[in-house]
Each structure stands twice: as structure tokens, then as C-alpha cells.
Amino acid sequence: MTAASIVSGNTVILKPSSDAPTIATKFFEVLEEAGLPGGVVNFCPGSGSSFGNAIVEHPKTGLSPSPAPKPWAWKSTSWAAKARPGQIWIKRTILEMGGKDSILVCADADLDLAVDGVVSSAFGFSGQKCSPVREPLWKRRFTMCSSSGCASGWPS
Question: Residue 148, SS3?
């Protein structure tokens, strides 16, 4: 979302999750090293319940994208819908609501490759990404083995 805003000629407030700000910090450092002018991206770590809310409610915030879970998305949408003194446009929101995705594994898929992809999606980048596969949808019978034995069938 940050890159799209930059190439569209907008400035950005980059407010990472207060639980996991590391990847955003590194991303901001890369932008600085690449020579992005100061003030184009403004790195602002902080608490979502205070600083994040203030960003969404500010009258000069025109777009509020968030990968946060559904409860935050409901709050963000209601805050963005309220006109504030000094506001000159209708606020827009992009809400991923946690961004948990599904993946369809077809009957003719390489099962080992599919499992590697699902695991990589969930745990790649130290879990700091918006598109982990939460629900793999399997189109064939499977066998799953653990230390207590093996079971075959269709996933529920």
C-alpha cells in the first residue's frame, strides 16, 4: 500500500503494528537509503489505540488502509464515515480484515510443493505479512501422519 501511494503522488504515514514493527522499520530504512525525499513517507510507530485512531479520525486523512482484524475494521469504517470540521473529501478505507486467505490445492497438484507453499505463506517473513494462507482447500484425499499414527480421508 505504501508504494502505491508514493507512485500516485501522495505522502504516507507508515504506522506499523505495535506488536511487530521490525519489517516496517527495515522497509523505511530501505526507502531512505534509496534516496526518497524526507516527508514522503513518515515512519510513526506507536499504539494503535491512540496514535492509529488519531490518524483515521484526522480531517486531512483521505485514505485509511488497514490489514487489521474485523473488529478494528468496523471501528475504522465508522470513524472514517463521520465528517470532521475541516474535512474536504469523503474518506476512503481499504480494509483487509486480517488478510487471511484461502488456497485451492487441486487433485493433480504436487502435494509436497503445496504443503511447502502453505507453510511458507503462514510463517514467511516472521509472520509479518498480510496474506498468510489460513484455509487450504484440498481437492483430494490425504494421509496425515503424526507420532501417534496415520489417518486418511477428506479434510472437513
Answer: coil
pLDDT single digits (tens) 97-148: 665 566 777 777 888 888 888 777 777 766 566 666 666 666 655 555 556 6
Q: What is the DSSP letter of 11?
A: -
Per DSSP, the three-state class of 26 is helix
Residue with cell 483515521: 56
DSSP state of 82: S
Report the alpha-carbon distance of residue 28 to residue 43 in Å, rounded: 7
Contact status, residue 95 vs residue 69, Cβ threshold 8 Å? no
Q: Report the DSSP pairing between strands 92-95 and 63-66.
A: parallel
Q: Output the pTM of the full model.
A: 0.57
E-assigned strand segments in the chain: 12-14, 41-43, 63-66, 92-95, 101-105, 133-138, 142-146, 149-153
> 109: helix, coil or strand?
coil
Confidence of residue 156 (pLDDT cuts 50, 70, 90): very low
CA distance 86 to 106: 53
Catalytic residues: 96, 130
Gap between the Cα atoms of 35 and 79, Å rounded: 35
